[in-house]
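Researcher: Here's a chain I'd like modeled. Treat it as a single chain, no partners, no ligands.
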Amino acid sequence: MRISGYSVKNILLLLAFLFVIVACEDDENEIEIEEEETIDPGVLKINSFVYENMSLYYLWEDKMPTLNISEEPDTWEYFDKLLYDEIDRWSFITDDVDELNNYFAGVRKEVGYSLRGYYFEEGSDRVVAFIEYVEPGGPADKAGLKRGDLIVEMNGAWITPDNYSDLFYSDQLNVGLGTVSDGEIYDLTPSVDVTAEEIQIDPILRNEVFTISGIKIGYLAYTSFIDEYNDDLEAVFSNFKAEGVSELILDLRYNGGGAVSTARLMASMICPASSAGELFLRSAYNDGLEEAIRNENPGTYTEWFEDYFETNSNNLDLSNLYVLTTGGTASASEMVIYSLSPYMNVFQIGEQTHGKYYGSITIEDEDGTHNWAIQPIIMRAENVDNSIDYSIGLIPDYEMYDDFRYELGDPDEVLTAFAISKITGSSTKAQELLKSAKTIDFIPSKEFLMKENPLRYEMYIDK
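Model: Modeled as a single isolated chain. Structure tokens:
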């Protein structure tokens, strides 16, 4: 059952709101009563909701400043002031909890692609963006866009840091594609019109079984840990097992996280069979919340603090796992890697991961009197040997970069081909591409990171 903001009862802090009454007597002994000027009562109510729940659940509650909620007219700014920004890059607030719940369920209004943006030249503010993948059947897919397309213009203008987010959040877009040669951009025609639609995200982007050198190799490109698709995920592993898969390539390059319960499910189907019942994850909360959990759940509180690998009929009983990663690999994706590493050989291929080892919950109004919600970090994750370096992302064993020239799931795609070569010990066609992987037409000089980071929405606790 997913943890709600009200799973621990009767421990919310009570706030008293003081209204100062000033009594004045005029010459005729008449009394006038005036209220002290204060903020809008609706804002005060939301501020109170924020403070009560942050004080109870926030992992860094002891770092929160003391603020007067009656002097905070902007709830968005008030929430941001409470955050321990030395570490916390992920907690956020929304005034549309329904949209947020839909997001976690994979229901999103969007164009339906994943992009990686780069500055075109050192010192320039012109941005270009590679399409990493498109959602099958989504607007971008129907418009003919595909992995490897290079977007060089938007609505007839250059892309810059100021308008880059429009590529993700605009309802209507006209994107210009191009190629790069000898340091120059060459436009391709015609440009492409795309209209955002509400789509249902299927996180199982691609799954294949390769038979190479007599070895059955499973491949899974997985984009989000959405628990509504757990049955489909199990079906993929059931097929892998029926096909006799003995090695697995898990492509988490574009996976920003999701439900912890789904991460545990996946890991339980990957790990050695002997690991069933062993510790998958240990959770740490703030001191006050830990004490409240122990007091209110005597005899059963350990389930709040520890998760174990499950016995699953689709378990592949693997000794090795080959994981493909980028800086967009975060949260629950990283959890699969660091929770499995003590029990089996995990080979990480690609780039350093994001470095988010914390989980959050969605806290909304219990009575439904408003549509605000907060998504605060409430737990820190620990693996069985507590071997996580919380200051950095997971470092790859083999550092490589996306090449974009082949579709995901193609055995000649560079990172996939490298994993296959490590599994089989034999060279493939893609080995020649590996030698030239950094000499493609466009070599980005500096990666551009989105100002609005979508990773903040990922990795919530679901048990």
